[in-house]
Amino acid sequence: MQHPQPGRPAILHVALGPGPGAGLVRRLPAPDALLARACGGRGLAGALLEASLPPSPLSPLSWDDPRAAVCFAPGRLAGCSLPGAGHLAIAFLSPRTGGAAVASLGGGLGDALARAGLAAIVVTGRADHPVGLVVRDDTAALADARELAGRPTPALFDALAAWDAAAGIGPAAWAGSPLATLVADRWHDAGGAGLGLALAAKNFAFLAATGTASPAVADPQALGLAKAAMERLIAASPALAGACGFSRCGTAALVDLLAGRRMLPTDNFRRTFFPQSPAVNAPRLEAAHPARAQACPGCPVGCRRVTADGRLLPDVDGLAHFTALLGLADPELAVAARNRCLDLGLDAPGAAATLACRAEITGHPLSPDRVLELLAAMGAMAGEGRELGRGAAGYAASRGRAGAAMQVKGVELPAFDPRGASGLALSLAVAPSGPDPWQGGCVAHELLRKPVATDRFTFEGKARAVVLGENAVAAAASLGGCALLSLAVGLEEWALALAAVTGQLVTAGDLAVLGARTVRAERGRNARRGLGAADDDLPARFFTEPGTGGDGFDVPPLSRTDFLAARAKYYRLRGCDADGRPVGPEAA
Ligand code: SF4
Q: Which family does it belong to (predicted)?
């Protein structure tokens, strides 16, 4: 299968080390067999990480071992001006999950790297001082980043304004917080699996890129038709483009829906309904803070909402967790806290959930001012922030209250209470890189009731639904696809686009196989690092305590028996043993 990037796609191998140059950068052709098997994006980044690890599961590398790679890979359709196809996949050993994680990063880096002819960047070793990597078309070099290390992320982006796109770590990563993330193009970040800390362990401060080449496209007319089909589906999606869709209110639009479904996590998941939620919903936020849409290249949705003075309005996780989860009906706090996290390079939902965990353990609710103070302390790992900056699991364990940490695989749960949607509960538990509501496709059929509503209070049929949803999201991510767009764009449209670019026949079924292979490979990497069924589980609270019923329905605890049966079926469908470890050939 021909790769769409101009000329022969290359992989940049960056070996960090001691000395004034802090390492070597080599640009080598990407092996055809690797591209054929792993495609690009999520699949390719994971495969390259795998190649950097010793084959024996008896001596797994620590996440901060210099030999462990951090691998960046744009999707195979990045740079082709398709909607939402510019996400960058980043595979790394997670300081939080104990396994290998793959993050998905919005912004312009995926497109810029693809237009520079790169299929991937593999970073190994450790520099003896902070460095960045700058890529301009077919040239790449390490840059001294000592002046930038530890500065708030806005200062980093000001300094990197000459490049088309950039991503970097903030003060939290340099201070050693596992909650540290990677921030891209000011408004995007890479989730809560600890990528910021993994990069700081390599003294890798930033990546900046400009690419000007046009991708090779076998059939431009067919690509135009595929793009038009995608855009039509997005325009017809109420969730993405409706009057209160993501294009108007960002994903914060979901807060009202979660409240109505009585699955808005409140007071550290001790309740699922926040009576003051109408005062802190997205329309209120938009009315108080007029904002414009900020889009990834080619995306008509533009789910990031940015005010005239350059502040990011919180997304669903930021808005819900900095209000309901903390029991604070203060939208101004949510805006301030979300932006403080961005400045510090802290994962916002993880930081908020850690503070909610603290409030439960200490029995002392937090004031808005105290929330902001503690976020600053977490970003500096100073004072009480030294404990809190470890995240909810680390904090709760140090207090002898592990059960108060609402996390899976060490990563704090997002703003979707599992008791309100059984398929979502299963998908949060089994996701290889930590809990993510978008990975299993259940937000669509359980919450939005699209394309066909399913009974959200049963596990019946959900194992298969999660497998299919994960396959679709993983395949799209290997092409560069944003998971949010899976609400409208299916594998049929992605297959049309890939066929147009490569000139080869590609079906939705081919992509589903790619997605299944990608998820199995991720589970295999985790299994070799010791993760098993015990890690694919939810906190006990969700099986023993009900949510907050009302409006004519109850929110009972999840049935432990039904959850375990659904998880066992998920394992069978994935070709895994009873402990969730893949059996048989990896590519089967
Ligand atoms: S929906 Fe949002 S995150 Fe996804 S591609 Fe569009 S702007 Fe980027």
A: Belongs to the AOR/FOR family.
